[in-house]
Write a structure and sequence with these properties.
The chain has one helix and nine strands, in the order H-E-E-E-E-E-E-E-E-E. The protein has 182 residues and is mainly β. It has an eight-stranded antiparallel barrel. A hairpin with a 2-residue loop joins strand 4 and strand 5. The chain is globular and about 50 Å long.
């Protein structure tokens, strides 16, 4: 499992460092950096977890904490996602959740107009006392560019977590800032 986690982290690092050159080769180069604002995550089956966050308190469990969408073409984005939660309760007690995901988005109407999109994701999490569960997800969303430099996203996702954690469904609302030539 450790080898798999290292391989995923290495692959995502290579993707993140190499993607700006891919984006500059596209017709409409830009990067969108954003964060989840509101989220709802609910477990399915034996997973009875329910988390509601305003602002996003799940920060990485079921929804991305922060993301950077590198637009590799007029309808395609490759999106690393990172989330970190750290809680300290005093008396030398603390816990953390670190989540690193990669997501590929396909925007039906392109990047310049409001558009439905579909996505697939793969990631790994590290939490206090966990065995580094892997997650695989699919989802749909709607992205609304606003004023040339902002975008809003609403998405719904299904994720499967390994190591007996099970499945979740999630709804999220995100805000992103657009950078690069538009």
């Amino acid at each position: 499992m450790r080898r798999f986690v290292v391989s995923v982290l290495f692959g995502l690092t290579i993707a993140v460092t190499g993607l700006p050159s891919i984006a500059h080769a596209a017709d409409d180069p830009a990067v969108e950096v954003g964060t989840s604002l509101v989220s709802l995550v609910a477990g399915l089956g034996s997973n009875d977890t329910t988390i509601i966050g305003i602002p996003n308190s799940t920060f990485g469990f079921g929804t991305p904490g922060v993301y950077a969408s590198f637009f590799a073409g007029p309808q395609l984005a490759i999106e690393p996602q990172l989330a970190l939660s750290y809680v300290s309760t005093g008396q030398n007690r603390s816990s953390h959740l670190l989540s690193l995901n990669g997501q590929v988005d396909y925007f039906v109407e392109g990047l310049r107009r409001p558009s439905a999109y579909v996505f697939a994701s793969l990631g790994v999490a590290n939490a206090t006392g966990s065995t580094n569960p892997v997650n695989v997800g699919l989802g749909i969303g709607y992205r609304i560019p606003a004023g040339g430099r902002l975008s809003f996203r609403l998405d719904a996702r299904f994720q499967h977590f390994t190591d007996g954690i099970g499945n979740t469904v999630g709804l999220g609302f995100s805000l992103g800032g657009l950078f690069g030539s538009r």
